[in-house]
Amino acid sequence: MVKWSDFERAAIQDIFSKIDYDVVGRAAFSRCLIVYPWTQRYFGSFGNLYNAAAITSNPKVAAHGKVIMAGLEKALTNMDDIKTTYKDLSVLHSEKLQVDPDNFNLLGDCLTIVVAGQMGAAFTPEVQGAFQKFLAVVVASLRKQYY
Amino acid sequence: KMSLSAKDKATVKAFWAKISSSGEAIGADALSRMLVVYPQTKTYFSHWKDMSPGSAPVKKHGATVMGGVAEAVAKIDDLTSGLLSLSELHAFTLRVDPANFKILSHNILVVLAIMFPTDFTPEVHVAMDKFLAAVARALSEKYR
């Protein structure tokens, strides 16, 4: 079981209470598709992903950004057992969506960068550490059911 | 090999022109974050009295690192030969595991997002990410 310090719990809850889910979800997912264009392989049905402008204005990208944030919200509200909370999501990503799990880290990096931009100086090194630990647990839980 | 296009180079140079006067602050903050968020990187600095964010050794070294980045921007058309002596330094003297270049690059990008929220657009983000990866590759040239 993952151990969270009081500081880490508070920092992570604080981030999620302050960020605009729609803005962050869309921005992070857009950046992932732009900065790591091979990730577009999973989104063939999304229409125009031809360039950065098309991606950032694509309504399916925005909608999927919300789906991602809803998934993170599940982890946030079950911080003491993300592994169990994510069991079905892990099976989904492995068996149905067949996503290479290394991509989870790419999206995670984009989330960190977008959240940093939103929070500004409040995103201190220690807060960054807590957030990245949260993302690492999320990623590990998503990887758990892969075989 | 993912090389820098003419557009990437132009984007990097234009962005660098905007941010270079904050080079020292960027370097200090990026290094501080690396040491806090990736504590295994502290092993390279055990000779420092103080590794805490904003400490004198961290500030000084942050400036050194960004001086290297500035040099890379100036030599963006041929990073391999331009950064030859820096590569030798990292390969033979410092022997920094190249995996750490990626870690420091990530923290530089985090700092850029914080300090330049309007200018650090997705287009600038991808160009800088590619650039820092190219710098890391050039630094790794002499390793073996």
From TrEMBL, chain A:
A GO cellular-component term linked to this record: hemoglobin complex
Organism expressing this protein natively: Poecilia formosa (Amazon molly)
GO biological process: hydrogen peroxide catabolic process
The UniProt record lists the keyword tRNA-binding: no
Alphabetical list of Pfam families matching this protein: Globin (PF00042)
Keywords: Heme, Iron, Metal-binding, Oxygen transport, Transport
Family that this chain belongs to: Belongs to the globin family.
GO molecular function annotation: haptoglobin binding; heme binding; metal ion binding; organic acid binding; oxygen binding; oxygen carrier activity; peroxidase activity
Residues of the Globin domain: 3-147
InterPro entries, alphabetized: Globin (IPR000971), Globin-like_sf (IPR009050), Globin/Proto (IPR012292), Hemoglobin_b (IPR002337), Hemoglobin_oxygen_transport (IPR050056)
Protein known as: Hemoglobin subunit beta-like
From TrEMBL, chain B:
Superkingdom in the source lineage: Eukaryota
One BP term from GO: hydrogen peroxide catabolic process
Domain Globin: 3-144
PROSITE patterns recorded: GLOBIN (PS01033)
Molecular-function GO terms, alphabetical: haptoglobin binding; heme binding; metal ion binding; organic acid binding; oxygen binding; oxygen carrier activity; peroxidase activity
Gene3D superfamilies the UniProt entry points to: Globins
Keyword entries, A-Z: Heme, Iron, Metal-binding, Oxygen transport, Transport
Keyword field contains Iron: yes
InterPro entries cross-referenced by the UniProt entry: Globin, Globin-like_sf, Globin/Proto, Hemoglobin_a-typ, Hemoglobin_oxygen_transport
A single Gene Ontology CC term: hemoglobin complex
Stated family: Belongs to the globin family.
Protein name: Globin domain-containing protein
